[in-house]
UniProtKB/TrEMBL annotation, chain A:
It is a multi-pass membrane protein. GO terms for cellular component: cytochrome o ubiquinol oxidase complex; plasma membrane. This is Cytochrome o ubiquinol oxidase operon protein cyoD. InterPro entries: Cyt_c_oxidase_su4_prok (IPR005171), Cyt_o_ubiqinol_oxidase_su4 (IPR014210), Cytochrome_c_oxidase_bac_sub4 (IPR050968). It is found in: Cell membrane. The chain crosses the membrane at residues 21-42, 54-72, 84-105. Keywords: Cell membrane, Electron transport, Membrane, Oxidoreductase, Transmembrane, Transmembrane helix, Transport. The keyword Membrane applies.
TrEMBL record, chain B:
The keyword Iron applies. Pathway: Energy metabolism; oxidative phosphorylation. The chain crosses the membrane at residues 20-41, 62-82, 102-127, 139-162, 189-210, 230-255, 287-305, 317-334, 346-368, 380-404, 416-440, 452-474, 494-515, 600-633. This is Quinol oxidase polypeptide I. It catalyses: 2 a quinol + O2 = 2 a quinone + 2 H2O. Belongs to the heme-copper respiratory oxidase family. Residues 40-558 form the Cytochrome oxidase subunit I profile domain. Its cofactor is ferriheme a; Cu cation. It comes from Paenibacillus phyllosphaerae.
Automatic annotation (TrEMBL), chain C:
Belongs to the cytochrome c oxidase subunit 3 family. Residues 1-20 have a biased composition (Basic and acidic residues). One of its GO terms (biological process) is aerobic electron transport chain. The keyword Protein transport does not apply. This is Cytochrome bo(3) ubiquinol oxidase subunit 3. InterPro entries: Cyt_c/ubiquinol_Oxase_su3, Cyt_c_oxidase-like_su3, Cyt_c_oxidase_su3-like_sf, Cyt_c_oxidase_su3_a-hlx, Cyt_c_ubiqinol_oxidase_su3, Ubiquinol_oxase_su3_dom. GO terms for molecular function: cytochrome bo3 ubiquinol oxidase activity; cytochrome-c oxidase activity. The chain crosses the membrane at residues 44-67, 87-107, 114-132, 152-179, 199-219. Its main location: membrane. PROSITE patterns: COX3. Residues 1-34 are annotated as: Disordered. It comes from the Bacteria. It is found in: Cell membrane.
Amino acid sequence: MASQQNHADAHGAHDGGHGSLKSYVIGFVLSIVLTIIPLVLVLNDIVEGTAAKVVLLVTAFLQFVVQLVFFMHLKEESKPRYNLMSLLLGVLLVLTIVIGSVWIMTYNKVG
Amino acid sequence: MLDNIKEFASEFFVTGDPLIYGADVSIGLAMIAIITVLTYFKKWGWLWREWLTTVDHKRVGIMYIIASILMLFRGGVDALLMRTQIALPDIQFLEAEHYNQIFTTHGVIMILFMAMPLMFGLFNIVVPLQIGARDVAYPFLNSLSFWMFFFGAMLFNMSFVIGGSPDAGWLSYAPLSELSHSPGVGQDFYIWGIQISGIGSLATGINFIVTILKMRAPGMKLMQMPMFSWSVLSSCVTIIFAFPILTVTLALLFLDRYLGAHFFTLDGGGNPMMYVNLIWMWGHPEVYIVVLPAFGIFSEVVATFSKKKLFGYKSMVFAMMIISVLSFFTWLHHFFTMGSGADVNAFFAITTMLIAIPTGVKIFNWLFTMFRGRITFTTPMLWTLAFIPCFVIGGMTGVLLSVAPADFQFHNSYFLIAHFHQVLIGGVAFGYFAGLSYWWPKMFGFKLNEKLGKWAFWLWNIGFYVCFMPQYFLGLDGMTRRVSEYSWDMGWGPLNLVSTIGGFLMGIGFLFQVWQIAHSIKFMERDTTGDPWNGRTLEWSIPSPAPLYNFATLPQVKDQDDWWEDKQRKQQGLPSLKTPQPIEPIHMPKNSAIPFIKSLCWFVAGFGFVFDWLFFAIPGMIGVLICMLVRSFSYDTDYYIPVDEVKRTEAALRGTN
Amino acid sequence: MQERKMRLSPREAAHTEVGHGGHSAGHHGHDEHHEHEHESLKTFGFWLFLMTDCILFASLFACYLVLHGNTNGGPTAEELFEMPGVIAETFILLTSSFTSGLAVLAMHKKNLKGLITWLAVTVLLGASFIYLEVDEFLKMVHEGATISTSAFLSSFFTLVGTHGLHVSLGLCWMIGLIFQLKRHGITPVTMRKVNVISLYWHFLDVVWIFVFTIVYMMGVM
C-alpha cells in the first residue's frame, strides 16, 4: 500500500502549497468585506427583490472562491489536478440537485 | 409478569405464518450448526484472526462475495414466492400483506445487498491486482466498509423474523412509508439497515477512486489501465456523488417518523413528492453504479477470450465516464407521471435518450473486439455473449419508456418490470456471474467446473427469456406491478404461468451454480500457472491465490495489456523490457478489530433506534465514538514484511512452476 | 510505522516536505517518502469525502428551498430570525476559519506552540459559535417553533442543525488532535491531520456562508 509511491502521477496528491501569512490575511479581509456588503445593502433595503438576491448569491459565491484560493490553496495544486476536477464535478452536481429539485417541485407544490 | 413477556414476544417476533415459522427453525438450525462446527474444529481463533479482523483486500472481497451469494438465495426465494402467488388467478398462497413485504425485501436485497456487495467483492479482489498495487488506498476503511455493509444487511434481514418486514416497496415512497401509513417497525429496519450499509458503500467509493488514481504500478498511465479498473473508477465517481443523497433522504424520513418532522408527511406542510424526487436522484445513478462494472467485466472477458486487444479503448473510456456523469441528469424519468410540466418531462426524456448513445458505442466495441478474433467459448464468455442481445432488447424497451407521453401508458406496469429486470439480470447479474467465473481461479487457485457452469448458464439464460418476455405483454395488457391477486376474467393467467416457469428455471440455474462451486472445491485441479485463461492484464502475472503482498516487486508497466505483451515478447524470443528489481521490505497494514467492533456498535445502535430503545441506541452510538477515538489515537498501524520472508513465500508459491 | 520513525526532528520533517519531488522507482527504503506519500494519499481521500459532504448539504438545501414556504400557519422566517445573533455567528466562524489557517502556517514553520495555540483559539471560537446557535434554537423552541411545527421549520432545523453537528464534531476532533500534537509533536502523520482538519474547517465556513445567505438573509429580506 504505502510502498506504492513511485507512480507516474502519484505526486498530485500533495495538497499544494500552504500559503503565506499575507495570503491568509488578504483572504480574511476579503471574506469580511464580502460579508459586510450584502449586510449593508440588503438589511438597509438599498437593493430589493431580485437585485438583492443577485447581490446575495454573487457575494456568497465570491466568498466561496476566496476560501478556495486563499485558505484551501486550490490554485497551488500540482498536476494532474484531481482536487479541482472533483470539485468542479461536485459543484455541477450540487447545482443540479438544488436547481433541478426546485424546478421540478414548482409544479408539485402543496400546502 | 409471564403475560407481559408473552405479549412482548408476540409483538417482537413475527408470528402467524407457517412460512416464517419454517424460516425461524432453519435460521436457528443453521446458527447452531455454524457454532457447533466452529467449536468442534476449534476454529474461532482462526475465524477472528484470519477473517473478521483482516484488512487484506482479497479476503474482504471473498467475504463480500459469500455474503452476496447468501443474499442472492434469499432474494431469489422471495422472487419465487411471488411468482408462485401470481402464477395463476385467485391463488391463496400468500396474503396480500405478506406479498407486499416480499416484493419490498426482494427489491432491496437484490439491489443493495446482493448486486452491490458482489460488485464490491469483485472490486476488492481484482482492482489492486490489476493495477499492480499491494492493497487498496485505505485497507482499514475497506474492512470497515465491509462490516458496515454486513451488519446493515443483517439488521435489514432480521426484520423477517423480528418485528416484521418493511412493506412499502423497495424505495419506500412517502407517505406510505410515513408513521401515519406504516406504523410498524419494518420501515425503521429499512431505514437503518440501508443507512448503515450505505455509509460503507460511500467509503468504498472514495477508497477505490484514490486507489485507482494514486496507486497504479510505476509506468501505468491512466490510458493504459485495464478496462475493468476504468469501469470501477466511473462507478465509484457515481457512488460518491449519489450515496449522500440517499443518506439524507433516509435521514429525513427517519426524522419524520421519529421526531415528528414534516418533510414528506401529508400534514404540516410536508410534501411527499419531494421524497420521490430525492430518492430517485440517488436511485437512478445507483442503476448505473451497478451496471458500469459489469461493462468493465465484459470488456476484460471479451478481450481475453477473443485473444485480441479491446476494440476502441478510448471510446470505451469516454463512454463510461460520460455515462457516470449523465446518470445524474435523468432521474425524473422514473416519475414522468407525477405531474411536472411539459418542459420538465421533455428535458428529462431527452437526457434519458442521450444515455443510449454511449451505451450503444460500447456494444459495437464488444462486437468489433470479437470480429475476427479466435473466440473460445468458456463460461465467462458465454455469459458475455448472452448479455449482448439481452441488454440490447432491455435498452430498446428503456428508450420506449423514456418517451414521456408513452410512459403514461407503461408506468408501473409489468412492461416496466420486464424492462428493468432485463437490464439488471441481463446486464448486471450476467456480468457479475461472468466476472465470478473469470476471476475465480485468481481468488482460490482452481477453476470452476465448466460443464456445470454451462448448465447453470443455459438454465439462467433460457429461464430469463421465458420469465420476462411474457411480462412485456402482460404489461401492455394492463397488468400493474405489485398486484398480489387477479381474477380469471383478466386473461393474464397463461402468460403469468409461463413467466413463473421461467422464474423456476432460473432458480434451478442458481442451484446448479451452488453445485458447481461445491463440486469444484472438491474435484477441480489446482491451477499452478496463475494464468489459466492466458490473460492479458497484471492480475494474471502473479500466483493464484495471490500472496498477502500481491507483488513481490512492483511491476513496471509499459503497455496496455502489459502482461500479454510481455508474454508475446517472450514467445518471440525477444528480451523482456523489464529490469528485475531487488526485493525490499514490504510495508503492510496491520489487522484491526475496530472495523468489526465499530460496525457491531452501529448494528446495536440501529436496532435501538428501530425499537426506540434508547438503552440500546445510546450505548451503541457511544461505542461508535469510542472506536473512532481509539483509531485516531493509535499510531502503530503498519509493519514491514522482511525480505527473506518475501523470498520464502515467493519460492514456495512459484516453486511448483 | 515504527515509533522511531514517528519522532522526526523538525529538520527531518522539513526534508520530507521538500523531498517528494523527483524520486524514481525503487525508493522503498526511504521511510520519509513513504510516510509523506501515504499521508498525502489520505488528504486526497478526505478531499473526496468533502465533496460527498457538499452533496449532502446540497440535498438539505434543496429540501429547504422547496419546503421553506410551507409554514403550516406557524411562524415564518421573517418573524423568527433574529439577525444580530446570526451576524455574530457569521463573523465568529469567519474568524475561526482564519485562525485555523494561522495554525497551519505555524505548523509549517515547525512552531508547535503556535500551532496548538491557534488550534485552541479556533476551538474557542467554534465553541462560541455553537453556544450562540444552541441559544438561538432554544429560544425558537421556547416560542413554540419546533421541528414538528411545519415543513419550513423541519427543513430549517435539519439544515442548520446538520451544519452545527458538523462543527461540534470538528471541535471534538480538534481537541483530540491537540492532545495528539502534545504527545507526538509535528510529524508527517500529525501534519496531515492538521491539514485535513483545517480543510474541514474552511469547508464548514463555506457551507455556513450559504446557510447565512440562503436561509437567513433571504429569509428576512
